[in-house]
Input
Amino acid sequence: MTAMLDLKPAARQMASLLQGITDDQLGAPTPCPEYTLGDLIDHVDGLSQAFTTAAAKDLGAATSQLPSGDATRLGDDWRSRIAGQLTALGDAWRDPGAWVGMTQAGGVDLPAESAGRIALDELVIHGWDIAHASGQPFDCDPQALSACMEFVSLMSEPGQEASREGLFGPVVDVPADAPLLDRVIALSGRDPAWTAV
Output
């Protein structure tokens, strides 16, 4: 039996974070060195569409390439548009059928259950990125955080270096008794103490 995860809390939090960003913050640095805050928001725009269509097994342009990040594509309606897409993403993965069979995301064919876990991981980790880049608080749903820990732990095992390439940076060392969120963030290749200043 496929274990479904609820993506809606993480999707709601992401939408809330986007509402707290002002236009003059779009050029701010993020924990993703190659992305400004605006670039990262555009990345969230793309991944929200890609993983919604992946849930529906509606394979095509949205699922056949990695979501890039380019703030010049945001447009004036980005807050409301992406918030709507995030709602659709959370709803799409509430369908039990989304979690069975095969699908595609980022141009890779993979089990639908894996795609759902990756979508949740993207929402949580990029939610943390956006919160820290924009000076907002971040409080993750405990179930989502536990699921992300399972995912990033698997991706951090010996022999997974090639799989991490382009997704995560090198693991950052944190104390074994660090809070779970800090350990998840560190395994994703980010420094939990990162600040924009």
In short: The CA atoms of residues 133 and 196 lie 6 Å apart. The chain is about 50% helix and 5% strand. The mean pLDDT is 91. The beta strands are 102-105, 108-111.
